[in-house]
């Protein structure tokens, strides 16, 4: 927790314009801002995130082993989420340290569980559940799957992306309503609508 790049899991505050990772308290929320159906990252950032995911996963595997653990790496604008399972607390700490030092990583959110790796059955179930959550988001007005990433581990849904506070609450509520979801954890970069509009304006000029 002392590591300056580690974000601890804390309860999301509806009015807080923060970037973090939080278990969701689902509640009704009216969406008043228009949703733009595009990725809110630059093309360079999208590519960087894809590279980061592969590199961090490889670097961790080289140190703690590629076969003994199940580790998923998800990156959004340099914020790296580690999910899955490792066998020891030391491996969890080592994975975080490796990710933190990797080039281009701004923040590490370590959600690794210390336990035996998930079974093939669990992995398949998580994959199907992720598809259901994505479909639910696609079918909901005022939010777009293009604005976020969905990761599922052991029935726990992790959401990442650039959203307004209203979009964050709606996406969380939709995900929580999908049958089979055990918990929803948000790791959003939450910004004001004005800030997001400015992002999109800059993107359109590039």
CATH topology (fold) name of the largest domain: Histidine-containing Protein, Chain: A
* Top-tier CATH class of the largest domain: Alpha Beta
Provide the gyration radius in Å.
17 Å
How many strands? 9
Distance between the termini: 38 Å
* Overall geometric form: globular
Helix content: 25-40%
Mean pLDDT: 85
Strand content: 15-25%
How many structurally independent domains? 2
The biggest beta sheet is recorded as:
5 strands, mixed
Helix and strand content put the structural class at alpha/beta
Task: Tell me the series of helices and strands, N- to C-terminal.
Answer: EHEEHEEHEEHEEH
Oligomer: single chain
Helix count from the secondary structure assignment: 5
What low-confidence regions span 5 or more consecutive residues with pLDDT below 50?
A: 1-19, 25-37
CATH architecture of the largest domain: 2-Layer Sandwich
């Amino acid at each position: 927790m002392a590591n300056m790049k580690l974000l601890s899991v804390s309860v999301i505050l509806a009015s807080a314009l923060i970037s973090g990772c939080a278990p969701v308290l689902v509640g009704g929320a009216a969406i008043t801002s228009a949703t733009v159906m595009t990725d809110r990252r630059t093309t360079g950032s999208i590519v960087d995130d894809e590279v980061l995911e592969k590199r961090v996963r490889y670097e961790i595997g080289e140190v703690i082993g590629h076969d003994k653990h199940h580790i998923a790496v998800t990156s959004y604008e340099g914020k790296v989420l580690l999910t899955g399972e490792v066998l020891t607390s030391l491996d969890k700490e080592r994975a975080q340290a490796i990710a933190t030092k990797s080039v281009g990583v701004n923040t590490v959110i370590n959600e690794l569980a210390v336990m035996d790796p998930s079974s093939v059955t669990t992995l398949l179930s998580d994959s199907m559940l992720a598809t259901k959550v994505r479909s639910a988001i696609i079918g909901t007005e005022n939010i777009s799957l293009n604005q976020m990433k969905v990761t599922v581990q052991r029935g726990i849904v992790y959401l990442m992306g650039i959203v307004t506070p209203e979009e964050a609450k709606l996406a969380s509520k939709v995900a929580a309503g999908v049958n089979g979801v055990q918990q929803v954890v948000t790791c959003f970069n939450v910004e004001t609508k004005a800030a997001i509009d400015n992002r999109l304006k800059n993107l359109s000029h590039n």
